[in-house]
Amino acid sequence: MGLFDRVREQAAAAARRRQHAAQAMDTLHQLSMQRITTQSRLKDWEAAVRMLRHHYTREQAANNPAVAEHRIAYLEVPEPQPALDRMG
Fold first, then answer.
1. Which of 48, 51, 59, 86 could be stapled to 77 by a disulfide with Cβ–Cβ 3.0 to 4.6 Å?
2. What is the rounded end-to-end Cα distance, in angstroms, of the chain?
3. DSSP letter for each residue of 20-66
4. How confident is the model over 9-65, as pLDDT tens digits?
5. Distance between CA 32 and CA 74 in Å, rounded?
6. 67 part of a folded domain
């Protein structure tokens, strides 16, 4: 094995390390964005549940069309997936 073969091997190994590091950074970025999105959806859902329980009740919606519209909008907020489903 000559000197140039060793240099080529070292360059290839360095390129593989850079590629793996870039993939790791990309994965970390995707996970952090997924976490932010999940937290935002959870907060939206919790706010909707709170509004439905305290401000836009079924009884109030039956008597007031404006409250009924808001109740429908809050009922359409999707419930976030359980944590185990997100991992798969």
1. 48
2. 46
3. HHHHHHHHHHHHHHHHHHHHHHHHHHHHHHHHHHHTS-HHHHHH-HH
4. 988 999 999 999 889 898 888 888 888 888 888 899 999 999 999 999 999 999 999
5. 27
6. yes
Residue 58: which domain range? 3-79
User: What is the rounded distance in angstroms from the CA atom of residue 60 to the CA atom of residue 71?
Assistant: 9
CA–CA distance, 85 with 7 (Å, rounded to integer) = 47
Note whether residue 85 is domain-resident: no
- How many CB atoms sit inside 10 A of residue 52's CB? 17
For 52-63, the DSSP string reads HHHTS-HHHHHH
Alpha-carbon distance of 61 to 76, in angstroms, equals 15
**Is the pTM for the entire model greater than 0.70?**
no
CA torsion, ordered 30, 32, 35, 41, to nearest 10 deg: -80
Residue 83 has a pLDDT of 63
Position 60: which residue type?
Q
